[in-house]
Amino acid sequence: MMEPVIVTIIDNSLLTKIKVLEDISQQIKTAFVNHKPVQLILPNSQIADNDDSSLPRKRQIYNSVSSKPIELQRFAAYVKIIQILINHLKTTRNQTTIRDIYYQDVEMFNKSQQECKNMLVQIVEISLGWSLVDDLNIHPAQKGLVFGYNIFKSAIEEPFLIPNNYKEYFEQLFREDMDTSAVSVVVIIFEKDAIFESFCKHLLIHGVGVGVASKETKISYMVVTAKGYSDLLTLRFLNWLTTRIKTCQCIGFFDSDVYGINIFKQYKENINHPIQYAGVYLLESNPTYWLNINARDFSLMTNLTTKLQHIDPRCHRELTRGAYLMKKAEMNVVTNNYNEYIIKKVDTSL
């Protein structure tokens, strides 16, 4: 068998990013023109720092000639990505999303947007050591919702998607006195978008309630949800927001089950600001509405309990209590009026 032409995906600091990609593409094209097989090597860059456990840690090798269909598919997909990135950098309005790239060739990515994302991270961030967002202006698909109460110059009466250019966008919206000691900013994170939407409507109609309103300090809210597990854009936004408003308090509301607490754990580990788990607590909800825990839930809870001992004692307590009672509780049944429950929780935390 003919020796393959080895093409390594690696940065060259002497070249522009588009030239690096064009050089890699040209090596592959030249080999094919000369009827030679190609071996594509994706090393693990020393400066890459990605915590996604679904991504490979060792260097990846894919051959253009192989008896394994999955290897051929991956090789073709990486070659396709390189060309997509080149075309993207050549456009005048060079901002796009991972979702947009995925839909350029759904079949090539096995009809999996997650696979497209993993391959982009592998080639751009792990192998080349670049940033998808900062260097290539490729953003995660927008998923997170945000709502501001008493924090913007003029009221925005509906929640909206967190924009990719959130820094510039929110700097134009924030009140001038937001950084003064007279204003207290509370960032509330919800696991479920239904709870998020209900609370936003409650704020618009009823305000913050008697408890918080009676305090001398003015209260401003930033309410956020990623509708379950958070996407990267929402995490980046929250990191920027809690850095921008250093005195803010961050409070989260999640289901008292292994999934809700796992979502809290994701925020806790990825936001560089203290975040308080404020509920729902199992014993604060009506036992009539408790749900049974199955064998799989119990196994997941047992494994997670050991990881949470040093992360958050409240979550550790909820897991051990739920495992003992074999019960779990959801946020939407904590009380007949969970919006008032949330307001009281925020009030006692200030």
UniProtKB/TrEMBL annotation:
Cofactor needs: Mg(2+)
Statement: the UniProt record of this protein carries the keyword Ribosomal protein: no
One of the GO BP terms on file: meiotic DNA double-strand break processing
InterPro entries listed in its UniProt record: Spo11/TopoVI_A, Spo11/TopoVI_A_N, Spo11/TopoVI_A_sf, TOPRIM_Topo6A/Spo11, WH-like_DNA-bd_sf
An annotated Gene Ontology molecular function: DNA topoisomerase type II (double strand cut, ATP-hydrolyzing) activity
Keywords of this entry: DNA-binding, Isomerase, Magnesium, Metal-binding, Topoisomerase
Residue spans crossing the bilayer: none
Domain Spo11/DNA topoisomerase VI subunit A N-terminal: residue ranges: 73-131
Domain Topoisomerase 6 subunit A/Spo11 TOPRIM stretches: 187-325
EC number(s) on file: 5.6.2.2
Gene3D superfamilies on file: 3.40.1360.10, Winged helix-like DNA-binding domain superfamily/Winged helix DNA-binding domain (1.10.10.10)
Zinc-finger listed as a keyword: no
Catalysed conversion reaction: ATP-dependent breakage, passage and rejoining of double-stranded DNA
Family label: Belongs to the TOP6A family.
Protein name: DNA topoisomerase (ATP-hydrolyzing)
Organism: Candida oxycetoniae
